[in-house]
Amino acid sequence: MVMPMPLLAIENSTDHGGLAILDGTRLVAERNWIELRPHRAALFEELRKLLDEAGLRADAFDVFAVGAGPGGFAGLRMSMALAQGLALPGGAPVHAVSSAAVIADAALRESSARRVAVVGDARRGRVWLGVFARRDGGPEHIGEWELLPDADALVGRLAAQEVETVASPDADAIPELLTAATAGRVWLRGARRPSAAGLGQLVQTRRAHDIASEPLTPVYLHPAVTVPPRFP
Amino acid sequence: MNILGIETSCDETSAAVVRDGRQVLSSIVHSQIAAHRPYGGVVPEIASRQHVEHLPEVLAEAVRGAGLEWSQLDALAVTYGPGLASSLLVGLAAAKGLALRLERPLIGIHHMEAHLYSAFLGPKAPAWESVMPCLALIVSGGHTLLLNVEAPGRYRLIGQTVDDAAGEAFDKGASLLGLGYPGGPAIDRAAREGGNPGAVLFPRGFPRKLHARFADDVDPNACFSFSGIKTALLYHLRKYPPGRDGNPAVADLAASYQEAIVDTLVTRTLTALGRNETLVVAGGVSLNRRLRELLAAAAAARGFRLLLAEPAYCTDNAAMVAGLAAHKQSPTLAESLALDACPSVEFG
Fold this sequence. Notes:
The complex is a heterodimer of chains A (232) and B (348).
Chain A: E1 6-11, E2 16-23, E3 26-34, H1 42-54, E4 63-67, H2 73-87, E5 94-97, H3 99-110, E6 115-123, E7 126-133, E8 140-148, H4 151-160, E9 165-168, H5 175-181, E10 186-191, H6 196-208
Chain B: E1 2-7, E2 12-19, E3 23-31, H1 33-36, H2 44-65, E4 75-81, H3 85-102, E5 106-110, H4 111-117, E6 134-139, E7 144-151, E8 154-160, H5 166-176, H6 183-192, H7 227-239, H8 250-273, E9 278-282, H9 289-302, E10 305-308, H10 319-325, H11 333-338
Parallel strand pairs in B: 1-4, 4-5, 6-9, 9-10
Antiparallel strand pairs in B: 1-2, 2-3, 6-7, 7-8
Helix pairs in contact in B: 2-3, 4-10, 5-6, 5-7, 5-8, 6-8, 8-9
């Protein structure tokens, strides 16, 4: 059972940022915006507006939820640092879950599939793949994040993982690849971006099932350094 | 007034609590040197990843170490630039979260001004108003500059490096000599192992108008150039590999290379000193023992006051950020939240 507990959700993994306040699983207020600037400074002003609209202070929350990506590093790092800054003084927990799991959660609610794949543009000529299975405590990430070079490789992995449904936050960026790779499967068309409200609801569900937070670091698909060390 | 400072401009994750601008109640620095050492320099992406991972614990430890509750903090301060953009953003985001949560002002601090202020931290340091006007040399891995400090907050840049910073030259030189990273301490240590500073005469990097592009309003005679020294070392090593045929040993090369950098710094600084009665020296390279020796000797000979930051506050740290913030006006909450990272903001 989900206990009523004020939660602030921060989802900033894409250009479509979002903040949501939930009381238990009930959505109290939310703000969504589009920001293309690399510094993602809108997050803070949007948070202030959200608090004003909800008539709440920043010390009102018992738990913070943050989307961990995959996605833009600047936005992910800022949302994690912001959540930690908000949480530290009161000792409230920060619960991270991948933004792809939020997309998968919405996709599983929309279909009857047992498994759903979330596919995104990983840049550098790659797509990323995360496969999620339907569970009571929300989507469970099966296996590891995968980086794949092309549609053929993606087709092979979708078949091997017995994926029935595919969703992507980057459908606008990789439409041909998705069209080619999802033949014979259900493709939830359009860009399926993670929402802050969805993130908050998923975190409340996970907490109700005693599922621990994922690591409080962004999902890093590429290594930090691509050159060999000079002093190994 | 208790201020919590945050510093994440480069490769140190740091938080500190300073009371009334001078009394350092806590100063926590999580060094990332081990993570960057294999690459011979700071890797921005590694730095950002490390900041995200370590900042929360560093913040909690700073407040615990100060013996305070979070509610006893009166303000927050954070470095907004110059520095690595992706690293600055982590510190800024955490600081804004704390400012919102605690309903306290967040004061943005210029990294170079904080380095300057580091010489005024601690019980033995003079009040900074008492030594002005003065000349300041700020010398680190990313910066080498000379400032006329007319009053707190009133600075005039009179000289700077036209290419590499002194600390960068140390890093590159240490890499060429196989001494590892960070280069400053490595070369300092190697030079102390019986190295002869006169074994090789490396060029002193005095930029000339003919070759260098100077920023507006700086004095070419107060500017530095360190890229030539590194190139000279590279060619020397190719021609005279250390340890062969009586060639200078690594300790001699380290001492000679260090001497060229330090001599350049000291000569330019003393030229720029003019009638100033006080010279303030701050930044990571100010830990170099040969630099300290030569400056102390010059101060004794010429009769000026030499003010060096305490060793704990020479490299990047948040105590200098929190200390300086006590002298700044408190912004509104809206202004605090609008503070943005400025990776290449000028100074002076």
